[in-house]
Amino acid sequence: MKIDGKPFRSVWLDADGYSIRIFDQTKLPWAVEELVLSDEEQVAHAIRSMQVRGAPLIGAVGAYGLAMALRRDPSIENLERMAAMLNETRPTAVNLKWALDRICAAVRNHPPERRADAAYAEAAAICDDDVETNRRIGQHGLELLQEIAARKPAGEPVRVLTHCNAGWIATVDFGTALSPIYQAHDLGLDVHVWVDETRPRNQGAALTAWELGAHGVPHTLVADNAGGHLMQRGLVDIVLVGTDRVTRQGDVANKIGTYLKALAARDNNVPFWVALPHSTLDMKVRDGLSEIPIEERSGTEVTDATGRLPDGSVVTVRVAAEGTPAANPAFDVTPARLVTGLITERGRCEASEAGLAGLYPEKA
C-alpha cells in the first residue's frame, strides 16, 4: 500500500542485510516512524509491546526474529529455545507459531553455517506468500461487495462495519478484511466503512481510520457500542472482520468485542463475514471456546488512554478512578454458528468443518 504516494510493505529488510524495519504502531496515527530491529530480543519486545501487531505481520516479523537468533547461535538447541521464546510473546494468534514452525522445518537439515541464510530466505518467502494470499482474499471478498452494490439503489454506498484493524499495517501488505474494501474502492465501487474505535487500545481509531484515510476510502469512526444501533437502523450492509485464529469447526478468535458484533448482526439479519489467510487456520483445535488460549493483557490498557494534546504532544492519562481494578482479555471467540462465512485466498466457504475441508483438503 502507499503512504503519501510511496509504496510500502509493513516489514522489510534493512540495508545491512540482516536487520528489519517496521512501522512503530504505538506511534500511529500521530507519527509515522520506522523502527529497526536487529536481534531476537528486540523482535520479541516489539511483538509483546504491540509496536508490531496483526496476526499475519506478527508471524512474518517473528520469522525474521528467529533468523536473527540463528546468526548468533545456529545450533538446533538455540533454534528450539528461541522459537519457544518468541512464540510466548502473543499466545492467541496462531500465525506466529505457524511461521516459527516453518522456519524450524526449513533449517533443520542444513549444516549450522547455512542455517541463518536459509532462515532469512524462508522469512522472505513467508512475506511474499502473505502478500499474494491477502491479494486473493481481497478478490474473493470484493465479489461480496459487488453483489451488495448491485442490489442497492443508484448512488447509495455499500456500508461496511469493521472491528479492530485487519488492514495492510496488520499484514505484510493489502490486509485481510480491508483488502476487499481497498480493491472495491480502487475499482470505483462506492464504499463507506464504519470504523469501530476498538477499545482498549483503539486500533480502529488509530490504525484502521489512518489507513483508510491515507488511501482515500470514505469512513466514519464510531464508538464500539454503536454497531448494534447502526444495524438496527439499516445502516450496515455487511460486517467484515479479520481473525487471529480459526478452528477446524469455524470458530473465530478475534479482538475483544467481535462476538458482540456477531450477535448484533445475527439479530438484524446482517451478514457477518470473516477474512483469513491459510496461516490463521488451526485445524488442530476444534472448540474455540475451550481450546484457544485468550491473552490477558495489562489492566492499565483499560484504565489509561493515550492521545495527542493541542500542542502536539502525545500523553497517556488515567481515565478510571485510582485503585480501580481492571481485567483486560484481549480476544473473544465467536462461535461458528454466528459466522455467515469465511473469506480465504482459495475462495469463500461456510464456517464449518466441512466448509474448511472443502477448501483445504490437505489440512483436513
UniProtKB/TrEMBL annotation:
Entries under InterPro entries matching the protein: IF-2B-related, IF-M1Pi, IF_2B-like_C, Initiation_fac_2B_a/b/d, M1Pi_N, NagB/RpiA_transferase-like
Pathway field: Amino-acid biosynthesis; L-methionine biosynthesis via salvage pathway; L-methionine from S-methyl-5-thio-alpha-D-ribose 1-phosphate: step 1/6
Top-level division of the source organism's lineage: Bacteria
Catalytic activity: 5-deoxy-alpha-D-ribose 1-phosphate = 5-deoxy-D-ribulose 1-phosphate; 5-(methylsulfanyl)-alpha-D-ribose 1-phosphate = 5-(methylsulfanyl)-D-ribulose 1-phosphate
Site residues (Transition state stabilizer), renumbered to this chain: 164
Sorted UniProt keywords: Amino-acid biosynthesis, Isomerase, Methionine biosynthesis
GO molecular function: S-methyl-5-thioribose-1-phosphate isomerase activity
Amino-acid biosynthesis listed as a keyword: yes
Active-site positions on this chain: 244 (proton donor)
Record GO biological process: L-methionine salvage from methylthioadenosine
Record-listed substrate binding positions: 53-55, 90, 203, 254-255
Coiled coil residues, start to end: none
Function: Catalyzes the interconversion of methylthioribose-1-phosphate (MTR-1-P) into methylthioribulose-1-phosphate (MTRu-1-P). Also catalyzes the interconversion of 5-deoxyribose 1-phosphate and 5-deoxyribulose 1-phosphate. Part of a bifunctional DHAP-shunt salvage pathway for SAM by-products.
NCBIfam families hit by this protein: eIF-2B_rel, PRK05720.1, salvage_mtnA
Family: Belongs to the EIF-2B alpha/beta/delta subunits family. MtnA subfamily.
Protein name in the entry: Methylthioribose-1-phosphate isomerase
Species whose genome carries this gene: Muricoccus roseus
Gene label: mtnA
